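Problem 3 from the worked examples.
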Amino acid sequence: MITLRCTRKVLDRLGIPADAQGFDAPTNALGDWYVNLLRAGREQVVMATSERSLLTVLLPARGMRERLVPELLRAVGAALRDLDVPGDVVAGELAAMQPMAFGPTASRSVLASMNNLAQMAEWRIRDGDSLVAIASWLGGVPMKALEGGGKGMVFPERAARHLLGLEGKRPPPRRLIRLRITLEGTRPAIWRRLLVPESIRLPDLHRVFQVAMGWQDHHLHEFAFGAACYGVPDPDGLDADLVDEAGHGLAELLARHGSGAFMYRYDFGDSWEHRVEVEGVEDNAQGLVSPTCTEGANACPPEDVGGLPGYLEFLAAVRDTRPTSLDEERA
């Protein structure tokens, strides 16, 4: 059990009294989580930071009253899996985080560190980076050690692994899957070549695709292996045929469905279809720790541009506004 130690604006947003009392002490490894709200243009973003490791996750604030707890658990689980924390350890930490109570912030040092992380996150948000990319980047930012945590600087991702009983540095995966992902219908093609761990799970692969292609993770997604679709189920059960992607690995599904290619769909309004081809499996001779983009071409379309037809109109408008001669450019 843990306490979500919220800033005053978060408590107000949730309708929780400022004098609410949480649990006396957390029972998990990473401790209580401090929760704040950041501004992302017209939207708001929930920022949650582990008090003991400073590991941070970011998630949209939409539906915060009803969805904060399950979305936080999902985000923390994804972040830990991204750090190569074994599945049983992730499950144990998520179980130990429940039940959750709400209360005000309690440690000035944690709050100060979270404010520093928030400032860095807002810079990256203004630059248009995705929430998953920002959170991953924050995990590698050296931070001043907290009270009782020793002197010098600590890396949140290493601190989290250490608290969970693992070596601070992630061991490199032994084998890698080489993928080529192409955004269907684009000419010239928008594509990337990626090396990902053979053990990668679908939630983590989704994050890799978002960062590599340049999307901002503002919309729903799904993976399609033939007729079988995997994604994040609707909490009201409206997607009866959609299998929960959590816990499913890429290698497992490739073997199960016997295919060397699958589809990754993003933003069901704009309907972006990506074809993903498996080009091979190889030993990790380079000792890569994180998924890596090795090749690619062309930037992805802007979010909410209206799908492929809207993107073509966008490109035409950009071309029409460009100077047609050196004299126009100088004017």
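Problem 4, a separate protein:
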Amino acid sequence: MHSIDLSAISDAAIQACESIAQEAGVNLKDCYQCGKCSAGCPLSDGMDLMPREVIRYLQLGMIDQVLEAKTPWICAQCVVCSSRCPQSVDICSVMRAVRLASKHAGKRPVPEADIFDDEFIANVKAHGVSNEQYLAAAYNLKSGHLMQDMGNATRMLKRKMVGVAMHNTEGRRDVAALIDRALEADAARRAAAEAKDGEA
């Protein structure tokens, strides 16, 4: 364990942590650090902070440590942590909110996860449904993992698990409009939060 000088934490850092909690719809004070979220997390071996530590750092106003952590980007959103929490803290929502805040701050501790998110949304927006074979190709190109799936690609094609045909849903324009509205709402919410922070 190491000591933390809480007097060095700025009001802006505390406000940023509170904004993440508000975005996630949680009260950080509800968490009493029992550790059930961390004990149940199937991906904890690859995390640099345990889920409970992410919550604790947010409680303490340690925004930089949270935004630079890999944990929210590794989180699979399986909801084990949230379902195990005796205080009903939605830790999955906190992880999503931290990812958004980290991305908007230009941090991206796990760039591959961010690239995948962007490519997935672009794929669904363009076609109304995810075309996995083209999603994988776009991800591999943009992430630099060019040969990552080459060994499996031919087997998957032979077994007709994937194909070359592009699938589009009839309502893809509606799906694109929905995604645009969500992105616009996120941008408006962030602009309002920044304006409010500027007034404080």
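Solution to problem 4. The mean pLDDT is 89. The chain has eleven helices and no strands.
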